Amino acid sequence: MRNVYGDPSKIDAATLRRYVDFFYGEGTRAAIGKKVPTLDFSEVDTDVLKTLDVPALVLWDARNRWIPTAHAAEFASRIPRAKSVMDAGAHPPPSRRNSPHRNLASITSSSHR
């Protein structure tokens, strides 16, 4: 979890429980361990992303060592109106609901660039 959060102090007991429940689900750990860090975008059909006609923000935590930061730009490049923002404090999806003020600051600042 430290590889995802970057800041271990952000991991509370409820968040830890969600991760444990998720990662110890049948087959989950093996599947994620094989796929996420080695994802090759040339092998993934992302054509549907080209059809999106809305502004999109790909918010990525720059301290995330588990999912490579290069994935953010790669993902955003497939959405016509997307912007990729690296933020050293953008928390991963399970915890974003716990820090909306932090994510709002990232969203607001990126919309004025």
From TrEMBL:
Chain segments carrying region Disordered? 83-113
| Stored SUPFAM superfamilies | alpha/beta-Hydrolases (SSF53474)
> Which source organism does the UniProt entry give?
Paraburkholderia fynbosensis
The name this protein carries in UniProt is Uncharacterized protein
